[in-house]
Design goal:
With 185 residues, this protein is α+β, with helices and mostly antiparallel strands. The chain is built from 5 helices and 4 strands, in the order βαββααβαα.
Length: 185
Amino acid sequence: MSDYRRWYVPGGTYFFTLVVENRRPLFATPETRALLGNALRTIHGESPFRTVAMVLLPDHLHAIWQLPSNDCDYSTGWQRIKARFTTDLRCSGYRMPKLSLARQNRGERGIWQRRFWEHVIRDEAELEAYFDYIHWNPVKHGYVRHPAEWESTTYHRHVRSGHYPKTWGSTEPSTLGCIDDQLCE
């Protein structure tokens, strides 16, 4: 097993990737997307982080969070979101995956990959690159031809706020080349 260490920076801005176990297209239905949205809103209401950008694809999600200056504990936030979603999913009647007794004893449910990928964003240029990466992701994976066609994204909010012009995403953003090699997908 690798010796992976997370970098905790109070007040940090982080890029995250969370993946469904075995890349199942769990979020392909409106019902599961709504359950995840409810879990995100619930935990966000109890926690001080700010979601800067996010996209939800059928088998994974990307997000950028900004933490308050006195907080660096993003792991607990994601743990609570994943747990809340999994509990709500089970209560909805979703047929949970069969797991070995050992995995059940570790508290696993077989919904999410065990870990998530995080990267602390170091400057404005990197923030913009990850921001663009998130909003371009549905196009990159071939789900749509333009980011505006994807519903489960903060892209629309950022067009309304003026961060992006309505034509943004007609071509691949030039900022993506500097981060594609860093990402775990």
